[in-house]
């Protein structure tokens, strides 16, 4: 790990600025595309089960809403802060533009470790946070979704809180809800399916066979766990997986069903009998064809990039690669499919859910799956072509594509007042 770290927002801003330069944006217009529109910080007081009152901090950021309502998840994690939420919101603006869905970028979070909280405590935190940021939320203004450590249950509480406050059912105010209250088929696992589509497309472009190709996955949560199945079903061998408690390695490939059963019983991949325990720090240095960071940001620094054992990185997590690592990966000929493209399956499924809620008509599962496939394939092709045309890595190409589309909408709408 390197010692001098730029903040998450500084890193995000740097990437936005260089994309703006690459596409030749007017400096004034670039300011509108780069700087967040608004940042709301709220106190989130809540009562513990034993009667004590605690107070947490939460945020909701609108980065750019020229293309439509703000869209982006809510994360519950002790490391959440305004700087990180700003960075993640800006990545959502670019992501929604890359897959060309009618949303701007937003993000939210609460600085909390949800693991020691009871279900009741988690519900009270969620409802109070929803109340706090409620003035920013609306189907036409800002639509949250799950992110790190939040799920359909949390989204249900959020939807209920806003609906209670406003006195009317408001399912379109949040996506990633349970099916019974306006959720969509295919939202669960959509990020992982989008990642898989990017893996297939990248390997096809590079002429690399999928059958027998080795993959390592960092993270075994909402995104990483389905990926073990999905990549294995393409004929790939997922040889190593890690989570917060440990990492396991089996050069013959991990058995997805056995691994899933083990984690259901123990809560972690650690101790999985059909594999060897390894130091999680070693995961990315394992020689393989594909590495998928599917946990938190900032995990691939210059040193990790220098020893990375994969030929292709597909970023399922948000912001897993630090800017300092990008040139190292490029110089080693490692192809990186950036987060703003690779993990956009989740927000694309969110768009479908929002459209269904507003239309009051649910789509069949196969309709959702086919539209997701088409949207991801188009975004991948557009990014790949942009990368060839500009002769830049895929990240710069995706950033350029996204920034250009946001700038176009911003310019068409003009400067208020
Ligand atoms: N949290 C997901 C992401 O980072 C999904 C966001 C959404 O659906 O709004 O892309």
In short:
With 417 residues, the protein is α/β, with parallel strands linked by helices. It contains 14 helices and twelve strands. Helix 1 (8-22) crosses helix 14.
Topology:
Layout: H1 8-22, H2 27-34, E1 38-47, E2 53-64, E3 70-76, H3 82-98, E4 104-110, H4 119-133, E5 142-146, H5 152-166, H6 190-206, E6 214-218, H7 224-233, E7 237-243, E8 246-249, H8 256-266, E9 276-278, E10 290-293, H9 302-307, E11 312-314, H10 326-331, E12 335-337, H11 339-342, H12 345-359, H13 365-390, H14 394-413
Parallel strand pairs: 3-4, 3-5, 6-7, 6-10, 10-11, 11-12
Antiparallel strand pairs: 1-2, 2-4, 7-8, 8-9
The protein binds glutamic acid.
Question: What does this entry look like structurally?
Answer:
The chain is of the alpha/beta class and 417 residues long. Among the domains are: 135 residues, Rossmann fold (3-Layer(aba) Sandwich); 148 residues, Rossmann fold (3-Layer(aba) Sandwich). The protein has 14 helices and twelve strands. Helix 3 links the parallel strand 3 and strand 4. The longest helix is centred in the C-terminal third of the chain and has 26 residues. The site of glutamic acid (GLU) has 11 residues, from strand 3 and helix 12.
What is the distance, rounded to the nearest whole angstrom, between the alpha carbons of the first and last residues?
47 Å
CATH superfamily annotation of the domain at 190-337: NAD(P)-binding Rossmann-like Domain
In percent terms, what proportion of residues is strand?
Answer: 15-25%
* Strand adjacency order, main sheet: 9-8-7-6-10-11-12
**CATH architecture annotation name of the domain at 190-337:** 3-Layer(aba) Sandwich
Q: Which structural category do the helix and sheet elements fall into? A: alpha/beta
Broad CATH class of the domain at 190-337 = Alpha Beta
Shape: globular
Low-confidence sequence ranges = none
Q: What string, H for helix and E for strand, traces the elements in order?
A: HHEEEHEHEHHEHEEHEEHEHEHHHH
In total, how many beta strands?
A: 12
Helix content: 40-55%
The name of the CATH topology of the domain at 190-337 is Rossmann fold
Q: Whole-number radius of gyration? A: 20 Å
Bound molecules: glutamic acid
């Amino acid at each position: 790990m390197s010692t001098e770290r730029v903040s998450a927002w500084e890193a995000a801003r740097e990437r936005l600025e260089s994309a703006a330069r690459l596409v030749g944006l007017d400096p004034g217009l670039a300011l509108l595309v780069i700087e967040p529109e608004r940042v709301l910080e709220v106190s989130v007081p809540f009562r513990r089960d034993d009667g004590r009152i605690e107070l947490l901090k939460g945020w909701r950021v609108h980065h750019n809403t020229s293309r439509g309502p703000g869209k982006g998840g809510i994360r519950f994690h002790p490391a959440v802060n305004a700087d990180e939420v700003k960075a993640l919101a800006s990545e959502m603006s670019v992501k929604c533009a890359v897959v060309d869905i009618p949303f701007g970028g937003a993000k939210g979070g609460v600085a909390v470790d949800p693991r020691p909280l009871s279900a009741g405590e988690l519900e009270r935190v969620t409802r109070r946070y929803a109340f706090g940021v409620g003035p920013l939320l609306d189907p036409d203004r800002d639509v949250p979704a799950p992110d790190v450590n939040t799920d359909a249950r949390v989204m249900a509480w959020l939807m209920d809180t806003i609906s209670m406050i406003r006195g009317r059912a408001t399912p379109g105010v949040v996506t990633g809800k349970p099916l019974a209250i306006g959720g969509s088929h295919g939202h669960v696992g959509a990020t992982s399916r989008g990642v898989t589509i990017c893996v297939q497309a990248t390997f096809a472009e590079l002429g690399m066979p999928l059958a027998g190709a080795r993959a390592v996955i960092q993270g075994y949560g909402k995104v990483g766990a389905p990926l073990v199945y999905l990549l294995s079903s393409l004929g790939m061998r997922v040889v190593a997986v890690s989570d917060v408690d440990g990492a396991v390695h089996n050069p013959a490939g991990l058995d997805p069903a056995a691994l899933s059963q083990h984690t259901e019983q123990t809560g972690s991949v650690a101790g999985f009998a059909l594999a060897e325990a390894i130091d999680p720090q070693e995961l990315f240095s394992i020689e393989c064809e594909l590495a998928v960071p599917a946990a938190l940001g900032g995990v691939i620094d210059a040193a990790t990039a220098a020893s990375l054992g994969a030929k292709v990185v597909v970023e399922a997590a948000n912001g897993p690669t630090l800017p300092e690592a990008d040139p190292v990966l490029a110089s080693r000929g490692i192809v990186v499919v950036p987060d703003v493209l690779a993990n956009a399956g989740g927000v694309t499924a969110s768009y479908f859910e929002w459209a269904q809620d507003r239309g009051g008509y649910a789509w069949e599962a196969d309709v959702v799956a086919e539209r997701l496939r088409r949207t991801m394939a188009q975004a991948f092709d557009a990014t790949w072509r942009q990368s060839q045309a500009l002769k830049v890595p895929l990240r710069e190409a995706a950033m350029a594509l996204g920034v250009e589309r946001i700038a176009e909408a911003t310019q068409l709408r003009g400067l208020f007042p």
